[in-house]
Amino acid sequence: MKTTILEAKGVCKSFAHNGGQNHVLSHVDLKVYEGDFTVIMGASGSGKSTLLYALSGMDRATAGTVLYQEKNLVTMKEKELAKLRHTDFGFIFQQMHLVSNLSLFENIAVSGYLNKEKTSAQVRERTEMLLARMGITEVKTHLPSQVSGGEQQRCAIARAVVNEPRVLFADEPTGALNRKNTTEVLGLLTDLNRDGQSIVMVTHDMRAALRATRLLYLEDGKIIGELSLPIYDSNEEKSRETQVNAWLSSMKW
Amino acid sequence: MEILSLVKANIKKKKSTCISVLLLTAIVVSLLTAMFSVRKNYETSLVQAYEEAECGEISIYMETEKLTDALRESVEQSALVENVEYAKALRTYGAKVGERADGSNYFFMELPEYVKLFSSSFDELEEEIPPLSEGEIYLPYGLKSRLSCQVGDLITVEFLHGQEASFLIKGFVQEAVQGAFNIGWKKVFISKADYDRLYEACKPLEAETGARVDYTSVYVEQAENNELSVMKFQRELNLETGLISAAMGTLNKEQTLNYTTLMTSMIMNIVSVFLVLLYVIVLIVMSHSISTEIEMEYVTLGVLKSQGFTEGKLRLVLMLQYLLSQFAGVFAGVLIAIPMERWISRLCQSITAILPERGLSVGMSLLLTFGLLLLSVLLVLWKTAKVAKISPVRAISGGQAEIYFDSRFNLPVSKRVLSASLSLRQLTSAGKRYIGTLFIVGILTFSMVTIHLIGNLMSSTKALEAMGMITPDVAVGNEEHDILEDWDGWNEVREIIAGHSEIVQENALFNCYASLNGENLYLEAYENPEGIPGMKKGRVPLYENELVITELVADMLEISMGDEVEVVYGETKKTFLVSGIYQSGSDSGACFGMSFAGVKDLHPSSGWGQRYYLLESREQAEEIEQALTERFGDTLAKRVYAEDENPVEEQFGAIVTALKAIIYGFSLLFAFVVVRMVCTRSFLQERTDIGVFKAIGFSSGKLRTGFALRFAFVALLGSGIGILCSILFSEKLLGLLLGAIGLTNVVFDFSVAAVAVPIAVVTGSFFVFAYFAAKKVKKVEVRELVTE
User: Fold this and answer.
1) Is the pLDDT of residue B509 over 90?
2) In what order do the strands lie in the sheet with A222-228?
3) Residue A93 and residue B695: Cβ atoms within 8 Å?
4) N or C: more exposed end of chain B, with fewer CB within 10 A?
5) Statement: residue B787 has pLDDT above 90
6) CA–CA min distance B686, chain A (Å)
7) A140 interaction partners in chain B (CB closer than 8 Å)
8) pLDDT tier for residue B407 given thresholds of 50, 70 and 90
9) Boundaries of domain holding A226
């Protein structure tokens, strides 16, 4: 029996557009389970990023509820949401969005410093550990503009997990990377998931989708399909790819 | 057409920037237009009122008995003179309304035709002036604020031997010749019956006291065929007839026009400097705005270039965008100037005592505005040169390179002071972006510190001393204004005072008008010349044949230290040596000083009536007064100067307050608009970083505080620059500006408050305004900040 850590009920999101309303999400119901590597797929404009932002509390849903530990993120106060972001949730962006005037080390450590339960020394120690795990120790004093896109994204992953979040959200984390860096980043995410990290990721990259243990398909703001998979094993990639392809074809992807 | 479309789109998109430029321009233009209009209106009205007074070019007061028939004849027959008029005048020695006293010379006269009555609201002049009944008096408007009096109040005037007479103030009049607040002699008007009665009562006292009350005011008009300047005419007339030398005092047209508008000119000068500084700020803000706009709109500009827009067209679009905002600002500024002109006019009216013309002097103001706009055009041309470097290829592939650079000034980010250390990092890694803000803060702080220092100067005894005035702790004389020079009680007075406090200085001051190289000037003679305050060069006139002059007199008469000069006082003419240059505010610097022995040498019957003392411990002054009263009773007038008593502050208080209001008010307004503009720009540049910080768990409050802190850092640093500039330049600058009132050598007291208040105001307002400018952090969701 899986434990639900996040639950969306009837989530809607609309944007004002040319005097009217553009309904991006329409009554989405979704549960995120602990330890899952949930991947949300869909065509461009299907609302997958919007759903991710609503689930993570980065954006507020227009209607519906997003429950985390029995609290509704939609109505949560700004301060509570801020606390949630540096304690329970981690977020990885497609464009990395590292703070450009902080070194890689500082980008990771600053997130850790927000956590009041950890001392400065503990944060620095964990940062060093993550830098090593992500393979970017050598460039830790560099500014983001001085390292490659892959190194930036690895730094962004380290930043997202520095506070050991319960859920890690990733918005097309490989979208801006080349093939080699994509493989490295996906490998890191898979490793984290193997260690028990719950991940919710949005992508339209087939290679990224293969890492999922649970695949969701979004169309016109609604979840229209779901596929469960075992934990990723590179030896079974071929058969997994066939399975996922077939499923995506059935979704008319 | 395509240019207009782009300009329209740009203005729509950059609404906030355009509004800020509009506001800043409006502030400068409104102040500029209002100031020039007020100055022009007063000058026009004053000249007109002076012409209507028909007082010729020179007004002279002289003891009637000195105006001999021979002198009259020589003046009337002079080829230099067109016409001479005479008016009887009764001299008094001060007046008071309630507790408010004024020791100036008042000349009681019958009501002449040219005097006009102010309406009850003081904003217009009545067509007719009702005649005065017995017991009624008309006062020049300048006395209204000087005596803090109203129509219906009772004014008590002091004559010789303590004789007093009281009058009911019937109204305030416009008296163009010497009605201004800051002209020490005043004509006041009473009925003929009162005049005759007072004359009869006072005339006999002249013989008893040696002092004079019977004066004649002589108005001399220059011959039409003469084309001499007023000063030259006065000098030539004196050399020919000796009229000026025989007079107690003279006020010519040039002096009247100068003294009446002295204070307003001083305000205008200070505000003009402030305006220049404000416009520099406008230019810095525009410069910063254009740079960031090109940086932020790199992609758009590159794409436009790729679509065939030439560099010239793109620069024209930017130029039009800013110029249109400025033109709108000019229009708004002119509208704001309408009520502002009225306010400043009204404020100055209590000083000039003249009803000014109303309305804006649009022509001159627009000409100056045009000059300012020309500067803007040049700035835009210079700053938009960067457009040439925009590469369409680079723009299409994502735009500019990273804007942040590593800096040697970077300090580590610390958990303990996370917000502050991150703010500091933002600052050190994009320092260039804040240079403009630094200068802006520096200029604002400099203006505030300078005006604060003027305020402090005016409210401290330093101003008095710097202006050559004495600030005694105790002054002793008698009620009758008798000459007490030979009184044998002085030793006893000295002993009584010395019994309570050590005497730092004991002196007596004698004032009169005397001719120096043919120029009738105010003479200050000290019993002990070593007590002459405000010495700047050379030494005090220790010997009887020495004198000191002010810089104004040195320039006016083209004399300097070491020169021999000729002084005429009474009947005697003597040669003196200029031993030094001093500073004095008497007659706005048109004065000279010597030892009292020197005066005696010229005019043996001269004598002083009051001796003053500077004490080691001022707190003892009241005890001394009691002790003197116990010994000498009420016949001896003892005056103890209160700590807060300061005639300069009283005289300039309103001006300094107005200046403070203008400079502090506009500085804050400027700070607000500038901070809003700069912060909004910075916010837009950093919105992604801010979004990221928010995404990783920083609360809006923390981010806003950090953002505001950064601007507070810049403001603090800029304030330091402003303070440094103040220390280096304020004294020199104000020496130039206050030279008009005789204060050429200003020494400031850089008190903690003078420095701390402007720093606190500027830093605090930057913090608050930046905090508000960053309010979007709270309103915008992270997704929007990061993806927009």
Assistant:
1) no
2) A89-92, A167-171, A198-202, A37-42, A214-219, A222-228
3) yes
4) N
5) no
6) 10
7) none
8) low
9) 4-250
Is there a contact between B195 and B109 (Cβ–Cβ < 8 Å)?
yes
Neighboring chain B residues of A83 at a CB cutoff of 8 Å: 697, 699
Q: Whole-angstrom Cα distance, residue B359 to residue B337? A: 9
Residue type present at position B456: N
Q: Do A86 and B781 touch (CB under 8 A)?
A: no
Rounded to a whole number of angstroms, the distance from the CA of B688 to the nearest CA of chain A is 7
Out of A53, A101, A145, closest to residue B783 by CB: A53
Q: What is the pLDDT of residues B262-300, one digit of tens each?
A: 777 777 777 888 888 888 888 888 888 888 888 878 888
Residues in chain A closer than 8 A to B429 (CB atoms): 101
- In this prediction the ipTM stands at 0.83
Decide if A58 and B430 are in contact by the 8 Å CB cutoff.
no
A159, pLDDT greater than 50:
yes
CATH of the domain at A145: 3.40.50.300
**pLDDT classification of B743: cutoffs 50, 70, 90:** low
Q: Is the pLDDT of residue B168 over 90?
A: yes
Spatial separation of the C-alpha atoms in residues B312 and B644, rounded to whole Å: 64
Contact B696 A114 (CB under 8 A): yes
- Average pLDDT score, chain B: 82
CA–CA min distance A123, chain B (Å): 9
The per-residue pLDDT for range B137-167, each reduced to its tens digit, is 999 988 887 788 889 999 988 776 667 789 9
Size (chain B), residues: 788
Comparing CA positions, the residue from A144, A212, A149 lying closest to residue A178 is: A149
Between B403, B698, B781, which is nearest A114 by CB?
B698
- Cβ partners under 8 Å of residue B72, min gap 6: B84
CA–CA distance from A181 to each of A139, A153, A173, A237 (Å)? 16, 9, 10, 18
How close is the nearest chain B Cα to the Cα of A83, in Å? 6
Q: In whole angstroms, what is the distance from residue B83 CA to residue B56 CA? A: 8
Check residue B653 and give its pLDDT.
Answer: 64
Residues of B within 8 A of A82 (CB-CB) are 694, 697-700, 702
Chain A: residue nearest B689 by CA? A99
Supply the pLDDT for residue A129.
Answer: 93
**Residues of chain A with pLDDT > 70: what percent?**
100
What pLDDT shows up at residue B403?
A: 47
Kindly state the average pLDDT of the residues A28-54. Answer: 92
Q: How many Å lie between the alpha carbon of A250 and the closest alpha carbon of chain B?
A: 31
Reduce the DSSP state of residue B787 to 3 states and report it.
helix
Q: Hey, what domains does chain B have and what are their CATH numbers?
A: 53-260 (no CATH), 404-460+647-788 (no CATH), 470-645 (2.40.40.20)
pLDDT tens-place string over residues B306-324: 777 888 888 888 889 899 9
B786: nearest CB among A93, A119, A123: A93
Domain total of chain A: 1
Chain A: closest CA distance from residue B715 (Å)? 22
Give residue A86's pLDDT: 86
Q: A102 and B414: CB-CB below 8 Å? A: no
Q: Chain B residues with CB-CB distance to A under 8 A?
A: 401-404, 406, 413-416, 418, 422, 425-426, 429-430, 688-689, 691-702, 778, 781-784, 786
| Per-residue pLDDT at B522 | 85
Residue-wise burial string across B689-727, b where 16 or more C-beta atoms lie within 10 A, e elsewhere = bbbbbbbbbbbbebbbbbbbbbbbbbbbbbbbbbbebbe
**B698–A82: do the CB atoms touch at under 8 Å?**
yes
Q: Is the pTM of this model over 0.80?
A: no
Residue numbers in B near A113 (CB within 8 A):
413-415, 418
Phi, psi dihedral angles at A226 (to 5 degrees): -145, 140
Cα(B480)–Cα(B482) distance, integer angstroms: 5
